[in-house]
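Notes from the 1:1 (GR / supervisor)

We went over the backlog. Supervisor wanted to see one worked example end to end before approving the batch request, so GR pasted a single chain during the call. The sequence is below; no edits were made to it. Supervisor asked that the structure be written out right there so they could see what the output format looks like.
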Amino acid sequence: QVQLVESGGGFVQPGGSLRLSCAASGSIVSINVMGWYRQAPGKQRELVASIISGGRTNYADSVKGRFTISRDNAKNTVYLQMNSLKPEDTAVYYCNANLRPSGRLVFDLYWGQGTQVTVSS
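Structure output shown during the call:
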């Protein structure tokens, strides 16, 4: 059974930093893309950042220059370093991974359970 488990959310003041982690566990053959999404109250879920297995990254315009996504392929883990946080970054953050579980020939998309990030003074 493949699972994605996030950690690192919390409460921070504007201008502060947080680091999110998301570890994929279970019998996994390969992971292609890993990413972070967020959903604020009353809004649709939106892409924050993504990273492919080779390391190429993609960011939402709203977080460019402030957030950095990285991954450790040996640990099947993706990270999101968030600096200069703003109140508008407040949301539930979800990680996802496009991966091939053992015993399957195709890639499937898996999601974590989400972690709350609150930025407020």
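Supervisor's comment: The two ends are 40 Å apart (CA to CA).
Batch request approved.
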